[in-house]
Amino acid sequence: MKKYILIILVLLLSLIVFPIKISFYYTQDASNVYITGDFTNFSPVPLNKTQTGLWKTTFNLSEGIYKYLYIIDGKETLDYKNINTKYFNGKIYSLLIIKREGEKIVAVGDGIINLAKHELKRKYINPVKKGEIYLAVEVKKNDVEDVIFVGNGEILNKEIIDFSDTLLYRFHIKTPSDILKYHFLIKDGETTIQIPENNFFFDFENPAIKYFDVPEWAKGRIFYQIFPERFRNGNKENDPAYTNNWNGPYTQESLGSHGFYGGDLQGVIDSIDYLTELGIEGIYFNPIFESVSSHKYDTKDYLKIDPHFGDDNLFAKLVNKLHEKDIKIILDGVFNHSGDEFFAMEDIFKKQDNSKYLNWYYIKKFPVIKSPESYECWWGYPDLPKLNIDNPEVKAYFSRIIGKWMEFDIDGWRLDAVEQIKDSFWEDFFRPLVKGINDNALISGEYWKDSTHYFEKPAFDTVMNYLFRDAAILYAKGGSASNFIKNTNDYLKKYPPQVWHILWNLLDSHDTPRILHELNGDVQRFKIAVALQMTFIGAPLIYYGDEIGLDGGGDPWCRKPFPWDKSKWNKDILNYYKSLIKLRKENPALRYGDYIILKKKLGTLIYKRVYNNNEVIVITNSRKTPAKINLELNNEYIDYFTKEKITKINKVNGLEIKILIRQ
Questions:
Q1: Which pLDDT does position 486 carry in this prediction?
Q2: How far apart (Å, rounded) are the C-alpha atoms in residues 122 and 136?
Q3: Which of 2, 27, 236, 549 has minimal CB crowding within 10 Å?
Q4: 241: helix, coil or strand?
Q5: For strand 657-662 and strand 48-49, is the pairing parallel, antiparallel, or unpaired?
Q6: What stretch of H or E contains 129?
């Protein structure tokens, strides 16, 4: 009898649903935070603020489905961490699902994770601006036949991105509605599964993920990087005390940090006709603020143009003259470190532990001397002390800097050494500040690796695309087409589509050997790399002098003065640049178009750029051996260089470059 009673008790206990503790958090700044939902009888319940600044409350909830909202400073808000939502009584609620998994009861998503992934990350939910969004579902390869979007929005584009084990179905959607109501249909043979059972909701008035729109003017634009001290000497009266001969001979010392040649802002003004004739549409300037070095990354005064470059009035004149030619201006922002002659650092050297600026830096020990043992430095260089960007006084000073130079109507910032600074500084301080002054300003970060995480919040509009540089150089040296495609697809697959056309595709910079040097002076291989730069998806960034064949190894040899003696120019290279820049400006497919691989074979790469009715086909061979190709073209094309009519491609010669334009 006792045995049977025991069995009955076990069965009864198995039917009892024990509640579990569910904690709700809010991590942003607020004066008061409440939660309301069906588990509170829709009455507001306050969250308590912890010592760490986190808002938190906990409920005991049993298995079921619960609707809830946060109330932040009096405003109802969806849970930005939860993509599950439900429309109820004229309002959208976040949806919490608690269900049994084995012997446990856990809080989970809506039960679709094993079939398809649609999470609250930019990879899956990527709002551009009000009424425009990218939505994506990720499924395992060979698991489903198709994914269909259903909702109150127009599908502008559907693409399938192939990852190693999964496929990402991404939809570009526009809608006139404030609330996008949608679901996905997963087709698997005869079966069609709707995900979720009801609908997802995206509220454009209260976006769960930040909008990420980029300046339209920057798409496909042709930028030019100027190292001011070495570009052109327009005013010899403001030259440093000792100035080297512009035309050489050059040495490691003369080209180094404390070698001067007299380049200045007047020299840029004097070169505007040259830049216009070349076809340049934007200039990124290396630092122009006061500094004791030639490179100016050791800033002495962020609020002052270096006197050897000019002054505020001359800078205003430069901005106006460039804008008259529709040339944009991007300044270099160096916020990770100052120079050791910066006023705050000088005060520390002078007053030691009595200085009121001690918290502006990371002081290690006293007495403070010019040494990495005394304070944290950039890469151990004592003339580049690392700033404490968490200090509100430092941020206030940066706000003043940004405000002053944006009053001159500059068009954006290129940010130095971004990985040395917390992401939150860029995401929560710098970007909101700049965009608050001018939402159309461009923000570019210097990062040499995969930059996906910088686009999540986001931090930047674009980055200096060293990944493209690596892929282009490897290919131009004789690499395979497959490797170039893989290496570029690796970042294109991950980056939000809205940034593709503004990625700064560079071949070299002030920090690298020049591209001609990398390719051992081989002009034809150089031309292949340039052809990729000028026709690939993104915005070309030309390092000053590349267009006339300026050579040079690593720093400082990549920083030679621009030779204004035209007899020293490689006219063939210059004409090639002008021709490809003209091609790019005349064909919107190269600025804004889709990128489609048509053929790859050994070193032969053939891809197409398409925008509306404009089509451009690019054909290159990185190897000396000709390749037999059988590619029928659906339309008639004209060879850009020879003007020959082309309808079929049978062969690509060794180291050949062909560019075809659809008629």
A1: 98
A2: 9
A3: 2
A4: coil
A5: unpaired
A6: strand 125-129
229, 332, 446, 461: the catalytic one is: 446
Cβ neighbours of residue 172 closer than 8 Å, sequence gap 6 or more: 132, 134, 155, 156, 157, 158, 497
Place of tokens 């454009």: 204
Strands 91-101 and 64-72: antiparallel
Q: Confidence band (pLDDT; 50, 70, 90) for 107? A: low
Question: What's the token pair of residue 552?
Answer: 């040079």
Q: Work out the burial of residue 545: count CB atoms within 10 Å of its CB; fewer than 13 is exposed, 13-18 middle, 19 or more buried.
A: buried
* Residue of 185, 94, 200 whose CA lies nearest to 144: 185
Q: Are 196 and 182 in contact (CB under 8 A)?
A: no
**What is the average per-residue pLDDT within 231-256?**
97
Share in percent of the chain as helix, strand, coil (round to 5): 30, 35, 40
Q: Are 340 and 292 a contacting pair, CB within 8 Å?
A: no
> What distance in Å separates the CA atoms of residue 475 and residue 481, rounded to the nearest whole number?
7
Scored b (16 or more CB within 10 A) or e, 116-136 reads bbbeeebbbbbbbeeebbbbb
First to last CA, the chain: 93
Burial class (CB in 10 A: 0-12, 13-18, 19+), 35: buried
Burial call 597-612: b when 16+ CB within 10 Å, e when fewer:
eebbbebbbbbbbbbe
Q: How many CA atoms lie within 13 A of 635 on its CB side?
A: 13
Q: How far are the Cα atoms of 243, 268, 306, 332, 626 from residue 228, in angstroms, in the given order?
A: 14, 8, 11, 11, 43
CA distances in angstroms from 49 to 26, 32, 34, listed in the order given: 9, 9, 11
Close Cβ partners of 55 (under 8 Å, ≥ 6 residues apart): 25, 26, 27, 30, 33, 47, 48, 49
Amino acid identity for residue 196 in this structure: P
Q: Is the link from the previous residue into 561 a cis peptide, with omega within 30 of 0?
A: no
Catalytic residue among 416, 518, 547, 615: 416
Q: What is the pLDDT of residue 3?
A: 43
Task: For helices 466-476 and 481-492, give the axis angle rounded to 10 degrees.
Answer: 170
Residue 510 gets which letter from DSSP?
T
Residue 277: which H helix or E strand, with range?
Answer: helix 272-278
Known catalytic membership, residue 143: no
What pLDDT is attached to residue 100?
A: 67
HEC string of 355-382?
CCCHHHECECCCCCCCCCCCECEECCEE
The CA distance from 235 to 317, in Å, is 15
Q: Is 446 a catalytic residue?
A: yes
Give phi and psi for 139, each to the nearest 5: -130, 160
Q: What angle do CA 554, 559, 562 make, to 5 degrees?
A: 140
The answer to pTM > 0.85 is yes
Cα 354 from chain centre: 42
**Pairing outcome for strands 442-445 and 462-463:** parallel
pLDDT of residue 103: 54
- The C-alpha atoms of residue 621 and residue 298 are separated, in whole angstroms, by 43
- Residues found in the chain: 663
